[in-house]
Every structure is written in structure tokens, then in C-alpha cells.
Amino acid sequence: MNSSNRAGGPGFSTNPMSRKESFAVTHKGCRIACSRSGTGVPILFIQGVGVHGSGWGPQVDVLDARYQCLTFDNRGLNKSQPIGTPLSIEQMAEDALSVLKARTTDPAHIVGHSMGGLIALQLALSARNSVRSLALLCTFSRGKDATKLSPWMIWTGLRTRIGTKRQRRRAFLKLVLPPATFACSNLDEVARQFAPIFGHDLAVQPPVAMKQLTAMARYDATPRLHQLSGLPTLVVSATHDRLARPEYGRGLAAAIRGARFVEIKDAAHGVPIERPESINSLLLEHFSRST
Q1: Contact 128, 147 (CB under 8 A)
Q2: Is the CB of residue 146 less than 8 Å from the CB of residue 242?
Q3: Is the whole-model pTM more than 0.70?
Q4: Torsion from C-alpha of 177, 110, 196, 176, nearest 10 degrees
Q5: Are 46 and 33 in contact (CB under 8 A)?
Q6: Which tens digit of pLDDT belongs to each residue from 223-245?
Q7: Where would a tag sit more exposed on the chain, N or C end, judged by fewer CB atoms within 10 A?
Q8: What is the C-alpha radius of gyration for the chain, rounded to an integer number of angstroms?
Q9: What is the bridge-based pairing of β-strands 108-113 and 20-27?
Q10: DSSP letters along 137-148, please?
């Protein structure tokens, strides 16, 4: 991995003047663990399957110099316990809105990655007045698209759950890294660096992850995407993403009138972590166009 993308490099530069706050929101049987950093126009960041809210660190540590950044652990993950109710994208969108409403009445920029993109779409469909803009990273409008069991997905998915911890970490990295990075990096070191960002050892997937995948597979926003026409929307895909394939992103952007589509070359599903400088630049540009 390029040294400029690691913690402490330019992509992860921190803002020592930002004010950080941890807080909790209780909603439908779950105490949702949240964090706020910075001041100004709010940004609500929504994570994907099995990733803690702190996984947005590469973005928050840069963007909180200009914005109020809100992150949280999705229901049933890490400190957001107990799960409280059956998981659905609709429920997780309610949770996300409750986090936003706990700290601001202003409409927010909503940023979602992977499953978080589905949650962001549902939030915008159900509470558009609370949404200033959408940024949908490595995502799709139909959860079944990302949960298709191709031979590669079956084999790689199994490898993340069987074998030694080292083998499982490497299999997980295959899901999120592009081939070039995978080929030339010290994978043990990459896994070590990624662990605190994901919030857990990459060899051990959180128990709630399978329930999140099931909820994702049941959700389809495609028939309603036209309702978001005119809402400032950025859709970002990565060329080597085998989970949220670029064609899914292109289709998503095409269905929302006025949406902008960007494909990042030589990147894969983990692009917000591996290429934070690219994502942060796109987000800053998008937000400036959406105010």
C-alpha cells in the first residue's frame, strides 16, 4: 500500500483542533453508539457490513476541519447493543436518521459505503427534507446484486472463515484490495493497519454481519430511484470492485436525474480506506456543489 494512504500519511492527516464527542441514541431497543467531530454543516457517514463507525476515520480526520462529522456503529455491531429488533435496511435508515436528529435539525450531506449506500438511499427516500446531498460509494440499488454467489465469491467468502488467522486475513483483503496492491504489498502489515479502521481483526467477522447481509439482500430501491431526481448525488465506483461492480454504480447514477458518476481506476471495494485522498477530494468537491 502506498505510504501516503496509511495512517499518519497525507490521506489520514488529522485535525488537532476538532472537537470530538461520543454520545448514544436509544432507538427501538438499541443504544446506538455515535461520535461527532468538527462543526458546521453536518455530514452523516453510514458504514457497510461488519465495519464500525470508526472506519470513516480516513474521511473524518480530514473533513472535520470544515464540517460537523457524525458517525455511528450500526445496530447490533460493536457498541450499538442490543440488536433490539430484526435487521432491515429500513430499520437501519431509521437509526441513521435518529443519530442525525440527535445533534442537528439541519439537512445533512449523507455518505454511505456499500450496505451504507442502501441505508443512505432509504433515508433519502423516507426523509428527503433531512438530506442536503447523497454520496454513494461502492454501492448499488439492489442488495441482491452484491450478494450473488459466483464461484469466486463462494471460494473467497469461505476462505475468510476457514484456515489460520493469517489465511483468513489475506482472503478478506482480496475482497477489498485491487490486484496490483495485493500483489506488491506486505499483506500482513496491511491487515495490521486496516484492523483498527475496520474495528476488528480482519480474520474475525462480527456475528451480526450475516444478518446485515440478509437484510441487504432483501432490499431494492431501484423502482423508487426516480423519486430522488434533482437531489445532488455523487456515485463512486472502483474498477476492480467485485462486490459493488462499476456497472451497478453506473446504473444507479443513471436512474437519479442529475447524479454524477465517477469510476476510480486501480481501486477496489476498500477505496475509502486505501485511497482516502481520492475519496476526500471527491467529497469536498461534491459538498461544495451541493450547498
Answers
A1: no
A2: no
A3: yes
A4: -10
A5: no
A6: 999 999 999 999 999 999 999 99
A7: C
A8: 17
A9: unpaired
A10: ES--SBHHHHT-
